[in-house]
Write a structure and sequence with these properties.
By secondary structure, this protein is α/β, with parallel strands linked by helices. It is about 40% helix and about 15% strand. The protein has 15 helices and 15 strands.
């Protein structure tokens, strides 16, 4: 059953660690069946309750899943083997359009903003007991949220969008609860949910966002939370339209106890209006980061939501890191007020997406990318298409990094794609995947 690998340990924590280490090293593969609790207890000479406790630890960590009489298996995407491992190694001389990074040429310079923030810190040092959110950052963030019709609520500053998503999930859910997630969706989110001991319920996505019927099905099936990317959805570029937002709000009104989490990580690089869903459920959270527009190393996001959710998140934050550096917060304030023409950035990404999507359409290849810096291309043979493109000198991201049950595809990052490269890339994609009928990617 386990080949040559032997699970070891006398205590539950030791047994769980042995399994987790084997999964992380690849000695136990995704989908591999584990011994029954009674069988393993006999082999290790321990009480079956000890093995049961070990398996419970592994389930809560997102390493294994149990299906009643069918036994326990290593998860298809265990938390110890993140989706970042599903990637193409880019050889020298190969053009990399797989990274998902913004164009460095479109990021603002940081030196002036940080120099000013540091000078302010020299004049008035930040000490323990200071406010956790810079007042000017709070004012500017709230003004931006108001302009986009995000409901009023308290604010917190966290270390990026995913930090916010994790803290909100942990504030309300317990291991074994189910979260409805976009499929295809951001691979880190698809890893994070099982890492918290939570279950995923895939929700199909089209160009206008999550499909309402799929959301309804997930919530009626017991999902306690829903995560929605409002714009620049990764990997498909979907953006929630006004019509889709109305339909999703209608579904959420039928399930008012749903924890709604909205991720607007694309703020600053999109030129489509925001259509928030918040306000129709009892508990909600809306997170907006600066990474895509101002730089991935600026680990800062603003979170708002209902009073209970924000109170729990801020309380837990105080017991851990305490706050996000006010030096960083004050530098972001400078960048917001002085550093970037976000309309020009959004227009640049839109032009690059449209050029590639149009060139692919001319060659009979369907592609999606309504917003953001990525284009999603459905393919019949994902592995083959990615390999053929690599051989042709182009590295793209395999769709497996972003899928649960959605059909195969691949993600192309256009952020640094030059106009003169577009036709060449489109030719190679068409040769790699062949003409495909226009269809949805779910």
């Amino acid at each position: 059953m386990l080949g040559e690998y032997r699970i070891e340990g006398r205590r539950a924590a030791e047994i769980a660690a042995s399994v987790e280490q084997a999964v992380g090293s690849g000695d136990l593969e995704p989908g591999q069946l584990l011994p029954s609790m009674r069988e393993l207890a006999t082999e290790l000479g321990v009480n079956p309750n000890t093995v049961a406790a070990a398996y419970r630890i592994l389930r809560e960590r997102g390493v294994i899943e149990t299906a009643g009489r069918r036994g326990s298996r290593v998860r298809s995407a265990p938390a110890t083997t993140g989706r970042d491992r599903i990637r193409v190694e880019v050889p020298e001389g190969v053009r990399d359009v797989s990274s998902g990074n913004p164009d460095p040429a479109l990021l603002p310079p940081l030196a002036k903003a940080f120099t000013a923030a540091a000078a302010q810190g020299d004049r008035d040092p930040v000490l323990y007991g200071n406010v956790a959110v810079d007042p000017e950052l709070a004012r500017l963030a709230r003004a931006g949220l108001d302009a986009d019709a995000v409901p009023d609520g308290p604010l917190a500053v966290l270390s990026g969008s995913l930090d916010g998503v994790e803290r909100v999930l942990a504030a309300h859910l317990r291991p074994g609860d189910t979260v409805a997630v976009e499929d295809p969706g951001w691979g880190r989110t698809l890893d994070l949910v099982p890492a918290l001991g939570l279950r995923t319920a895939p929700v199909g996505v089209d160009d206008e966002g999550p499909r309402p019927d799929d959301v309804r099905r997930a919530l009626e099936g017991g999902a306690r939370a829903l995560i929605v990317t409002d714009r620049a959805q990764n990997p498909t570029g979907a953006a929630v339209s006004a019509t889709r937002a109305r339909a999703l709000r209608s579904v959420l009104r039928e399930h008012p106890e749903t924890l709604l989490i909205e991720d607007d990580h694309g703020h600053g690089i999109v030129d489509l209006p925001l259509h928030p869903l918040a306000g129709v459920t009892r508990h909600w959270a809306f997170v907006r980061s600066v990474a895509k527009a101002y730089g991935p190393d600026l680990r800062l996001a603003v979170l708002t939501g209902d009073e209970i959710t924000l109170d729990r998140v801020r309380g837990r934050q105080r017991l851990g890191p305490g706050w996000v550096s006010l030096l960083l917060q004050r530098a972001v304030v400078r960048l917001w007020t002085e550093g970037l023409d976000t309309r020009a950035v959004a227009a640049a990404y839109r032009t690059r997406r449209d050029l590639l999507i149009g060139a692919l359409a001319e060659r009979g290849v369907a592609a999606h990318g309504r917003s953001g810096m990525n284009v999603w291309v459905p393919v019949p043979d994902e592995t083959g298409a990615v390999a053929r493109l690599l051989h042709a000198g182009w590295a793209v991201a395999p769709g497996a990094r972003f899928r649960l049950s959605a059909p195969p595809g691949m993600r192309i990052t256009v952020s640094t794609l030059r106009e003169e490269e577009t036709k060449t890339l489109a030719d190679e994609v068409a040769a790699a995947v062949g003409p495909a009928p226009v269809r949805s990617y779910v």
